[in-house]
Design brief:
The complex is a heterodimer of chains A (112) and B (113). Chain A is mostly beta strands and 112 residues long. Chain A contains no helices and 11 strands. In chain A, strands 2, 4, 5, 6, 9, 10 and 11 form a 7-stranded mixed beta sheet that branches. In chain A, β7 and β8 form a beta hairpin. Chain B is an all-beta fold and 113 residues long. In chain B, β4 and β5 form a beta hairpin. Chain B starts with a strand and ends with a strand. Classes of the chains: A mainly beta (112), B mainly beta (113). At the A-B interface, β5 and β10 of A face β5 of B.
Chain lengths: 112, 113
């Protein structure tokens, strides 16, 4: 299995609080991604990174920010969590854009 | 038109059956195609890439029809362990998804004894 670790694996937080999810890889892949998965929507791209300090928005980026200060770490921040951000969040990595991606185990986030 | 469309199922089949999943995609410029498998409450895992010439991996066969923008996955001799959701994936071309992978919503397969 690809070396991708997400933390935390589960989190319950209150509306309006900031939340940061972490993705750590040991594969030295250039590309890292954050997706969210919701019933009826499938996997949707939030943000992605193509190198240290190089990030771009995905399909559903509103309300989220990201940072990548090291090749191996990609952080997803919800500045002020809302109930609509209750979801399962997956981090993924790939060697090149548009090639096969490998996923972390996911973070189940509940905003109450 | 949605970028990647799949029949959501569920497909309920007996062990040993042959089952086929279909997927259509909207971007004629897409170059990369995959099938992923996702078990309940788990992460998606790459099942196989899909090549223009078609490709086979054991009981699994994937085919691509670029003219019709259609991808298929055939599973022969279904096993109980094949029960999962199968995701069709292509690389996108519009807006924030440009070049990135676009996932279909998945087709759920349930193999019964």
């Amino acid at each position: 299995d690809a070396g991708i670790t997400q933390s935390p694996r589960h989190k319950v937080t209150e509306t309006g609080t900031p939340v940061t999810l972490r993705c750590h890889q040991t594969e030295n892949h250039r590309y890292m991604y954050w997706y969210r998965q919701d019933p009826g929507h499938g996997l949707r791209l939030i943000h992605y990174s193509y190198g240290v300090k190089d990030t771009d928005k995905g399909e559903v980026s509103d309300g989220y920010s990201v940072s990548r200060s090291k090749t191996e770490d990609f952080l997803l921040t919800l500045e002020s969590a809302t109930s609509s951000q209750t979801s399962v969040y997956f981090c993924a990595i790939s060697g090149q854009l548009g090639t096969e991606a490998f996923f972390g185990q996911g973070t189940r986030l509940t905003v109450v | 038109r949605k970028e990647v469309e799949q029949d959501p199922g569920p497909f309920n089949v007996p062990e040993g059956a042959t089952v086929a999943f279909n997927c259509t995609y909207s971007n004629s410029a897409s170059q990369s195609f995959f099938w992923y498998r996702q078990d309940c409450r788990k992460e998606p895992k790459l099942l196989m890439s899909v090549y223009s010439s078609g490709n086979e991996d054991g009981r699994f066969t994937a085919q691509l029809n670029r003219a019709s923008q259609y991808i298929s996955l055939l599973i022969r001799d279904s096993k109980l362990s094949d029960s999962a959701t199968y995701l069709c994936v292509v690389n996108g071309a519009y807006g924030g998804s440009q070049g990135n992978l676009i996932f279909g919503k998945g087709t759920k397969l349930s193999v019964k004894p």
